Amino acid sequence: MSSVYKINKGVGRSIEFRGLKAQYIGFLAGGLVALLLLFALLYICGVNLYLCIALIGGLGVALFATVNRMSRIYGAHGLLKKNAKRNIPACLCSRSRKLFTQLNPSLCQNR
Fold first, then answer.
1. How many whole angstroms separate alpha carbon 22 and alpha carbon 65?
2. Confidence band of 100 (pLDDT split at 50, 70, 90)
């Protein structure tokens, strides 16, 4: 039985797949690959199969819930804006005028 998934994308809008927007689709895909590798590693190390399935299943549910929540809260670009805002300094301190006296005047003119 074949399933057809619809990806909604209008002109100038980001990709949306089942409620996940933009980069969250990639986050979910990366998380699922990491869970697959973790399952393989645990299974090779000899951990009980039912424990592996339970652990990976629980982590998978947590991954889906977290990525969906982040997609709903921050939207397509909100998480990037939040991380960028965290890197803005509260103030700029200059202890000398040397920086301003050596500016090239041709670079400061409006074009």
1. 16
2. confident
